[in-house]
Design a protein that fits this description.
- By secondary structure, this protein is mainly alpha-helical.
- It is built from six helices and no strands.
């Protein structure tokens, strides 16, 4: 198995990953794809960024930021 370089994910790979987080996040996939959210941008997301991207519900922001934090930890521990 090759290495997983999340920072090099394309917007399509990011949206595939987002879709896997379930229906709460999946509703935002079209907008995030349209904005070109790639792996490098995904790993640097903050709450302010999510507001700008149209994710205004606090629980949805928390879910997404927690999932991104797991990715960051995976990158650091890989």
């Amino acid at each position: 198995m090759g290495t997983l370089n999340i920072a090099e994910w394309s917007p399509d790979q990011v949206t595939d990953w987002l879709s896997g987080l379930g229906p709460t996040v999946e509703v935002y996939v079209p907008a995030l794809r349209q904005r070109g959210l790639d792996g490098a941008k995904l790993l640097t997301l903050r709450c302010d960024d999510l507001e700008y991207l149209g994710i205004h519900i606090i629980g949805h922001q928390e879910l997404l930021l927690e999932a991104v934090e797991h990715l960051r930890n995976f990158v650091c521990n890989f």
